[in-house]
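Q: What changes when DAU is included in the input?
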Amino acid sequence: MKRLLVTGGAGFIGSNFVHHVVGETDAQVTVLDKMTYAANREAVDALPADRVELVEGDIAEESVVEPLVARHDAVVHFAAESHNDNSLDDPSPFIRTNLIGTFTILEAVRRHDVRLHHVSTDEVYGDLALDDPKRFTEDTPYNPSSPYSASKAGSDHLVRAWVRSFGVRATISNCSNNYGPWQHVEKFIPRQITEVLEGRRPKLYGSGENVRDWIHAEDHSSAVLAILERGAVGETYLIGADGERSNLEVVRLILTLMGRPADDFEHVNDRVGHDLRYAIESGKLRTELGWSPRFEDFEAGLADTIEWYRSHEDWWRPAKDATEATYAAKGQ
Ligand code: NAD
Ligand code: DAU
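A: The predicted holo structure follows.
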């Protein structure tokens, strides 16, 4: 893969992925990103200009996508509206970007016979009971709960249909919850860390018993690169690092690591339709492609992430007040 087009490469995981690719390969990378509120220009600016080009544009516009796809060997498709709470407030950008945008990418890779990797989420499978011994596998039926996860499920189905009907050379990955540097302060872990840095209390939705399966964004990146390089066309791979923790446990850990009493948080209004538990069985990826995570110690990864937010206040500060005002209006 000499010439790689990365959609959403200025976002949280996309920018981590581009840093990973620049470090691990000699590929030339073009980032196509609409530079929405979730984009990190600084993360792309920190990359070598002779390896990475940033094109500002919308994946749902064929006139933007077509000429870019035509001059690349592969597309890694991260671009999406990604926040569940926003999708409950206004689903329309989720439908446009996640569905029309993915359709536009698929038509371009079909026309030019370009390899595609589609990045998706474990949320397409719905949720599990807290005491269910099962975890999600590649064979779990789709059952999405929110407008966000339904739009991602729809995008996965489009990719599968384009593989079967048109022979598009695509793979799909469904990953669990990511944490690490450059994640927007609207998301759970950065929100709680920055609340503590602001001298306020973390905010737990509902009871806090909901479980998420945490993976460091760097490990998600290495998995996506492994699938791009060695994955079988037409296949889906689940990405996870055995990191199940309840939200309550995570909040307590953040408070302890930041030198505050573990119970110094508050309960706020729950998310509508809040998924109870996600859990990934990633055996296929590990066995068939030889992938394993580097950040197996969640507490150490979280401590690094806290330090990153402590030393990057200039980056998160401009988004913080507006994000909190939106949450406060909903009692969250
Ligand atoms: P993010 O919101 O941080 O970044 C999304 C990026 O896409 C932003 O840079 C944004 O500007 C860009 N974008 C949005 N609409 C666009 C459009 N129409 N055209 C071009 N660019 C556009 O998201 P993230 O958390 O980095 O997630 C990236 C991908 O990974 C998404 O597809 C998401 O569904 C998937 N994913 C995320 C997680 C997670 O925990 N964050 C887990 C599994 C899968
Ligand atoms: O599972 C993968 C998904 O993980 C990705 O597809 C999404 O793009 C990503 O945003 C994430 O979705 P979640 O909804 O799980 O992540 P979020 O960070 O919004 O919330 C994580 C959990 O924390 C969830 O149970 C809701 C809860 N929460 C969230 C916030 C913002 C709180 O308790 N308090 C909060 O302030």
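Observations recorded in class: The chain has two domains: 3-178+214-239, 184-211+243-270+277-320.
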